[in-house]
Amino acid sequence: MQLGLIGLGKMGGNMAERLRLGGHQVVGFDFNAEAVAHLTASGNVGVASLEELVQKLEGRKAIWIMVPQGDPVDQTIAKLVPLLSPGDILIDGGNSYYKDSMRRHQEVTAKGFQFVDVGTSGGVWGLKEGYSMMIGGDKDAVDHLRSIFETLASAADKGWGHVGPAGAGHFVKMVHNGIEYGLMQAYAEGFTILEKKEELHLDLPQVAEIWRYGSVVRSWLLDLTADALAGNPTLDGLQAYVVDSGEGRWTAFEAIDLNVSAPVITESVIRRIRSREENNFTDRMLAIMRNAFGGHAVKKD
Q1: What residue spans of 111-167 are helical by DSSP H?
Q2: Active site annotation includes 56
């Protein structure tokens, strides 16, 4: 089966390679000419424009969009729609907000096309390990794409599923990423406690390796953490600045809307935001209040 792919970054490029190895042909476009050339060199087909991408696809076309969430997705769809035929399928495999996916499904369907939202997890490891895919959209479109999902997943019957109507795929992926935020925060806090207990001279890479086997906190995330610590046990050269791509805060907002208590996920989002504040005003306010009521010392620049 052919698949059009827009966005040949690290994840998109790895997806194209996994599909090629599984017997599918990918026709790919990216504004980065080097990425396009690499795709062609690897055995797939790189093109220089969206028009050429659509021309290279035969029969009922399926185009997977891997661009940043928000306006880039809408702009890409707007450019593709005039080039497509009724029944063609647009797939958003990025980290889009689920309500945007519901809207896009309505807009695309009204014009005679189909829209599938795929929450995709696996990152740079997907080429080797396979991807986890949470899929929303109409059953007919999902069934048509089955061989694509079976090839991208870790196994034909594992790691992917049609979870519901339009928007459901990105909703499930949103909550998945919210959970991920909480897990990462817990690991980070735990290893910090270990690191601060200086008199025990704990070897953090060793502890991580011990926990990886038989422990109830073992996980793939811990495996990656252990590898990272082995390469840089003291985290030299790293800044305490953690970005977020939106899903964690969307999960926290949704929890509030649904009257669901989600303190761990919410606090993990707040901690990421706080990591970007140098000499932040909040902590200075706390210091001056402690000084005001208890005469506690205040450190000054």
Answers
A1: 126-129, 139-144, 146-152
A2: no
Identify the CA nearest to 165 among candidates 110, 99, 121, 66: 99
Catalytic one among 17, 61, 173, 247? 173
CA distance 242 to 231: 19
- 173 catalytic residue (yes or no): yes
> Which pLDDT band holds residue 289 (cuts at 50, 70, 90)?
confident
pLDDT at 295: 79
> What percentage of the chain reaches a pLDDT higher than 70?
100
Mean pLDDT of the chain: 94
pLDDT digits (tens, 9 = 90+) for 240-252: 888 888 899 999 9
Tell me the C-alpha distance between 108 and 204, whole Å: 51
Q: Say if CB 69 and CB 95 are below 8 A apart.
A: yes
* Dihedrals phi, psi of 166, to nearest 5 degrees: -50, 135
Give me the residue label for tokens 């369907």. Answer: 109
In DSSP terms, 27 is beta-bridged to: 4, 45
Contact 273, 181 (CB under 8 A): no
In angstroms, how far is CA 97 from the centroid of its own chain? 12
- Distance CA(165)–CA(279), nearest Å, equals 46
3-state secondary structure at position 86: coil
Q: Where are the beta strands (DSSP E) in 159-293?
A: 160-164
State both tokens at 74: 């809408």
Task: Please work out, in degrees rounded to the nearest 5, the angle formed at the alpha carbon of residue 133 by the alpha carbons of 271 and 72.
Answer: 70
Q: Which listed residue (129, 150, 180, 209) is catalytic?
A: 180
Nearest residue to 51 via CA among 29, 33, 26: 29
Instruction: Tell whether the model's pLDDT for residue 66 goes beyond 80.
Output: yes
Q: Are 128 and 223 in contact (CB under 8 A)?
A: no
